[in-house]
Amino acid sequence: MKARLTPWKLGTRRLREGAVRIVIVGLFIMFVLVPLYWVIVTSIKPSKDYLTVPPVWFPAEPTLVHYTAALFSYRGLQGLINSLIISSAATLLSAVLGTMMAYSLARFRTGGQHLAFWVLSQRFLPPVAIVLPIFLLFRGWGLYDTHIGLILAYTFMTLPLSVWMMYAYFRQLPKSLEDAALVDGLSRWQAFRLVAVPLAAPGIAAAAVFIFISVWTEFFFALILTSRYAFTLPTIFRAFLGFQGAQYGEACALATTSLVPSIVLGMLVQRHLVRGLTLGALRG
Amino acid sequence: MANVKVSALHKHFGPVHAVRGIDLDIPDGEFTVLVGPSGCGKSTLLRTIAGLEEIDEGRIEIGGEIVNEMRPRDRDVAMVFQDYALYPHMTVFGNISLSLRARRMAKSEMEERVGRVADMLGIKSLLERYPRQLSGGQRQRVAIGRAIVRNPRVFLFDEPLSNLDAQLRDEMRGEIKRLHQEIATTMIYVTHDQVEAMTLADRIVLLRDGVIEQQGAPLDLFEQPTTLFVAGFLGSPRMNFVKGRLEGGPDGVAVKLNGGGPAWPLPRGRNPVLANGAEVIVGLRPEHVGRAGTGPAAQGFARVEAAIELVQPTGSRSYATFKLADQPVMAELQAHDISHAGERMCVDINLRRVSLFDPGTGKAL
């Protein structure tokens, strides 16, 4: 016998499921959003409100003084500009090179069956293993503490990730579209540029977001390979935990500032990330 | 417009020898259908002609020019793919005009040519749409439009109708045939469907395991198959095969079926080169086995009594299965010749149309 669900039973079951869902989602939101809220609110709190018990949920006299201090006294603005230049350039280079390398691996089986995995295996190297040789090379080549130096370092660091992501993407794109383009009179390069790349746009966008975020937040290489000139945003945070105690307001102001580019980028590519471009290409 | 000539072509995929020494000469303007079961190498052969697969050995000529090393774009061939392969990020106009854009054609001429092709295929109202907004038949039309807009020397079709439903397939088949009559360009068409092959082809090339089993006009292959395989592949329902044995008779050679019954004298002119008593396979097309008339069997016909075991009406015809010398045989009857299984009736077999095969080699006798 199958138990019949009366409307009343159905109602309580729905209610129970709804309650469980609300609790789980609520916990998750608290876990993610409360620290974020704390950072943002602290960035506009006067120093006396930092660590009070009970906490000040919203300051009575919000202030932007920490922003001016972080951006100008601590050279946050310079760091922000450096970070933007370096992250954008490295992301662009890594995405472009990665897409071309991945296409070659996916369509021509370049390097047999092992090269693709070898590229990914570069990712297994701990950064400490290579940072010293790179430091010495960069000093010799005059790339130490330059934008170009850090851009190159980040491009090569993130290439395995972008190659591997795009390799997976190209492999699931139907080959017949490029065959059609080749027979249609396009060169291999045109087929890549006019057919394969537009179809791979969602994959490229996803890869670019990953690369940008990993470069934007990178600390270790930036710390070793830069000093007074090409320093990036993350390296500045050292200064806030100094002799005179922690500068919570300035740290949070800079942290809030550094959130903005990631959010903007996420919004820009969101459309690409979700668009299923290959729909309708094939039998449907 | 060009002829296509393939000589001693070989193609391997790793350990698989997909195309094994094919020689093929397709005259200018001919509609050639490459047909065969899956894995016979027909699509591979087509793709080597397009330049999408490199060849291991042999030679391919288009219009008298050897194209072995030529890139696909320089061969001036157009291809229609099984999955349509429309560019999903371009409109119908973009899809059809891409090849013209690649050749840097002036915009006005491009628009005029695309418009003419769209008119011809009845897709003019769809030019601004994207492939995902089209039905299967419309997509197929766009794919064909993309091929014909260029005026290529040769058209290649790779199972273009196999994703369509039966009704649409019949319709598009007719359109492709009409297209060939209108533009009279060399067309090479790959299919595994023998009905498509029969209806479309000027010439059928039947492939099996990477070699050409037989080629010729559709009716020649149908009526004079050179092997058991060709006989079984073409025709629906397929040819009946019954085991028998040759016998010398007073009026020449006769064939006696293994399960018993009288020997059937073979019509004059049919003198198989096998010894008396040799095993043969007798091939009977269902349409040559029919209900007997009222009088005695006519000259050249053998009459047998049949206990019908299975009836498959199709509307215009009914297919009836019975045992002939203990071996199942299908007869094609008029729809009202038979009502139900279990009936007993006399059928006449047209001995003039009987095919004989050597069971050892599979070759026709």
Largest sheet of chain B: 6 strands, mixed
Structural class of chain A: mainly alpha
Instruction: Give the DSSP E fraction of chain A (strand runs of 2 or more residues).
Output: under 5%
Individual helix count of chain A: 11
Cα-based radius of gyration of chain B, to the nearest Å: 25 Å
Mean pLDDT of chain B: 90
Q: What is the tally of beta strands of chain A?
A: 2
Computed structural class of chain B: alpha+beta
Distance between the termini of chain A: 42 Å
Overview of the structural elements:
The complex is a heterodimer of chains A (284) and B (365). With 284 residues, chain A is mostly helical. Chain A has helices at 7-43, 65-73, 76-108, 115-121, 127-141, 147-172, 175-183, 188-216, 220-225, 233-236, 248-274, and strands spanning 241-242, 245-246. In chain A, helix 1 (7-43) crosses helix 11 (248-274). The radius of gyration of chain A is 25 Å and the shape is flat. Chain B is α+β, with helices and mostly antiparallel strands. Chain B is built from 9 helices and 20 strands. Chain B has helices at 42-50, 72-75, 92-102, 107-121, 136-148, 166-183, 194-200, 218-223, 228-233; strands spanning 4-13, 16-26, 31-35, 57-62, 65-66, 77-80, 154-158, 186-191, 203-208, 211-216, 240-249, 252-257, 264-265, 279-284, 289-291, 301-313, 317-324, 327-334, 344-350, 355-357. In chain B, strand 7, helix 6 (166-183) and strand 8 form a beta-alpha-beta unit. Chain B is elongated. The interface between A and B is medium-sized, with 25 and 34 residues.
Question: Any chance you could write out the topology, listing elements then pairs?
Answer:
The complex is a heterodimer of chains A (284) and B (365).
Chain A: H1 7-43, H2 65-73, H3 76-108, H4 115-121, H5 127-141, H6 147-172, H7 175-183, H8 188-216, H9 220-225, H10 233-236, E1 241-242, E2 245-246, H11 248-274
Antiparallel strand pairs in A: 1-2
Helix pairs in contact in A: 1-11, 2-3, 2-11, 3-6, 3-8, 4-6, 6-8, 7-8, 8-11
Chain B: E1 4-13, E2 16-26, E3 31-35, H1 42-50, E4 57-62, E5 65-66, H2 72-75, E6 77-80, H3 92-102, H4 107-121, H5 136-148, E7 154-158, H6 166-183, E8 186-191, H7 194-200, E9 203-208, E10 211-216, H8 218-223, H9 228-233, E11 240-249, E12 252-257, E13 264-265, E14 279-284, E15 289-291, E16 301-313, E17 317-324, E18 327-334, E19 344-350, E20 355-357
Parallel strand pairs in B: 3-8, 3-9, 6-7, 7-8
Antiparallel strand pairs in B: 1-2, 1-4, 4-5, 9-10, 11-12, 11-14, 12-13, 14-20, 15-19, 16-17, 16-19, 17-18
Helix pairs in contact in B: 3-4, 3-5, 4-5
